[in-house]
Write a structure and sequence with these properties.
Elements lengths: L1 E4 L2 E9 L6 E7 L2 E10 L9 E4 L8 H15 L3
Length: 80
């Protein structure tokens, strides 16, 4: 799915990892392939146990973008 943040179209992918049981909601900016990270929820865990995983090539992410993405991930996780 695509979401818009500050005039950028962000690819948002909701993945269930069958091997580990984790759910990952990934955010990538197609115009900047270095900007990619995921909110990861362990199998059977609640939202309070979610973590953020940055792609190794991602040098930094603005706080505003991270907060926006976390809100989007929470909406997706909670099915809103």
């Amino acid at each position: 799915m695509k979401r818009v943040y500050a005039n950028s179209v962000i690819e948002v992918v909701d993945l269930d990892d069958v091997a580990s049981g984790e759910r990952a909601i990934e955010f990538c900016d197609p115009s900047n392939t270095d900007l990619c990270f995921a909110v990861v929820i362990p199998e059977g865990a609640s939202w309070s146990e979610a973590t953020v995983s940055l792609a190794p090539r991602c040098p930094e992410i603005s706080v505003a973008f991270m907060l926006w993405a976390i809100d989007v991930a929470r909406e997706i996780f909670e099915g809103k």
